[in-house]
Description:
Blueprint: H1 14-25, E1 28-30, E2 38-40, H2 41-51, E3 62-65, E4 68-70, E5 73-74, E6 79-80, E7 84-87, E8 90-91, E9 95-96, E10 101-102, E11 105-106, E12 111-112, E13 115-116, E14 121-122, E15 126-127, E16 132-133, E17 137-138, E18 143-144, E19 148-149, E20 154-155, E21 160-163, E22 168-169, E23 173-174, E24 180-181, E25 184-186, E26 191-197, E27 202-203, H3 208-213, H4 216-220, H5 226-231, E28 233-236, E29 241-247, E30 256-258, E31 263-269, E32 278-279, E33 284-288, H6 294-301, H7 310-322, H8 326-342, H9 346-359, H10 365-385, E34 389-390, H11 401-409, E35 421-422, H12 427-455
Helix pairs in contact: 7-8, 8-9, 10-11, 10-12
Amino acid sequence: MPDNVLMRFTYLTDTERVVAAGFATGSERDVAGWPDPKVRAVALRYILLGGVTAEPGDRAELRLTGAQVEGAFEVEFADIDAPITLSRCTFEGPISFFGSHVRRLTLTESEFPELNVANAVIDGTVALSGCTSAGLVSLGGSTIGGSLLMHGALLTGPGIAFDSTSLRVRRDVLADDGFTCRGAFRLDRAEIGGILSLERAVLDGSGDAAANSLRAADIARGGLDDSEWSASVAFSGRHLTARELILLPAQPPGGLVDLRHAKVGLLRDAPATWPPGLRIDGMSYEAVADLDGRDARLRWLRLDPRGFRPQPYAHLAQVYRAAGRDEDARTVLLAGERHRCDTLSLPGRWWGRLQDVTVGYGYRPVRAALWLAVLFTIGAVVFKLYPPRAAEPARAPEFVAPVYALDLILPVGDFGQQSAYHPRGVTVWLAYALIVAGLVLTTTVAAAGARRLRRS
């Protein structure tokens, strides 16, 4: 059989000549059910690279349906003027458009062992809807001027089934409506101008064995080292950017999800389909679709198997505050402090619990005010029953127990009672306790008031 370099029109089979004639006029050729639906990949390459030209007044376009393509279909580092549509075709060998410039690429409902469209430029849309791939699908480093459509596609490649690192898509990436990825799905550093949708998708992770080996207890305590984490990721979108991320798969992913340092506008997800483990340190989003799901979102923040990370809590609080939900923002920050406290040594945990109970780490000013009221009452009653002695009896003002207690508690201002009267006996320790507690509690209340004034 002649090499593609030596290919001539006379070497084409009857079926291939029909395909070539359709290419010249931009007409579709459906060879499904033909006695000979076979087309050699080398013949398609010959047709695309100038072997066949358009008829006058027509636009050349490869539109082929139902063919059995023999051999590896490799058209690399080429400038292909004609749009390519290969629907319901079965490819014997891998497909590669590595480094090529393609107008439009459609492989809907086709089957192939591998697809490589890395470092390519596609002016229009890449349509892989309904296709089946038994190996790696790669679009890494490519630029797509339209959308990437993968509705209902089935990718069963072992390990990494889809790798589009540094992919740039002007519009949307739609891997939804039954899209199934048995291996890892990677979009690290991808730039998506529109929506990234994984709605009703199935993300099994790095194969059934890896998915089955993941245990909730291991994830919860961070029992995965770097190599295990890498091998267990179902979806990786580190440093991903998109206007909207729809992470609503048909079921919880079979592996972990990595969205570290991703940047999205709107985040849509649901607790029912959250993964067993999630890394979102450094991730930013402008809004979440369900603002009322605060308590569930707090559980979402604890899905990181590496434990507490301050940035996710701070960012979620910022999102709530931007939406005018200050109480939700404070609750998120308080939850972050409690999570951080779990990571401390025993003395640190005890001190953290004390701050939580007394002032809610500064995010519960009403609780601090109540403690102030309790301390004021205790001080007023005790010093009424056990009054202090006057420092200078001849010059001391009349003793008033409530004012004396207030003078001890408030770190600013002077009512003349504390300086004029000195506690005695065990009440000395009460006075010290009121001074320290008053300093902490009044500072908490003042800080909360200052935050509210700044927002106003």
